Amino acid sequence: xxxxxxxIAKAPGVRRARPGRPPQQKASPNLRDRILDVAEKQxxxxxxxxxxxxxxxREVGATAAMIHYYFETxxxxxxxxxxxxxxxxxxxxxxxxxxxxxxxxxxxxxxxAIAAFLHPVLNKLVSGDDGWRHYLAxxxxxxxxxEWGGAVMTQSFDPxxxxxxxxxxxxxxxxxxxDLYWGYHFLSGALLLTLSETDRIDRLxxxxxxxxxxxxxxxRLVEFAAAGFRRVCQRGTSGTxxxxxxxxxxNGRARPIGATTQ
Length: 262
Prior knowledge:
Blueprint: E1 2-3, E2 6-7, H1 31-46, H2 53-60, H3 64-71, H4 74-104, H5 110-126, H6 130-142, H7 149-171, H8 177-196, H9 200-204, H10 214-235, H11 241-244
Antiparallel strand pairs: 1-2
């Protein structure tokens, strides 16, 4: 490589590296993970658009060339951040769902399946690990990005989500498929809000509730989601008692299930 016809001399004692590759003396077995840790924090705190590879490199104490060597682009660095912990939590969730199905046998219910799905995730917040807290806040952000968030969530989490839906389907064997998916849609919204830890409920409740109180959130979220699945699945089941309880009001309009006459 030359500039203005003048050869660039090699630094003494440093072997010439491939273009884009960090000099050997600066390489570190943990450098890639340190880059991912810093990128994870910055993406979680500032959002994807506000993060730059130069900013990540600066905080790591590296150069932008090193970021390029390991990840090539910011998007590939982001994908690596997202995939790293997804693999861990998906394995834990799948193991928990499989173990619950085996132990529950014929007594399988929605509460047990949902608890097995949620606990590995919520337990990461209880652990106090800042890395996991940053990652899960990032998951909450990505789940609300219209342009490309859905594709990232699909690639990262669909197999374990489908496993949960299949177990809930066993708990409600007469449920329509679309109602099972709607049930998960609502559960997912509640989970993403929980992961974001916005402090909204802290202010709304005047301090009676805290968005970081996972020990209070987890059992309530399980009960809430299971009741929602149960109601939605009953509502959409053809020919069941739930349908027969829908009666015509005196004025000819349908009265919602469970409504009372005045």
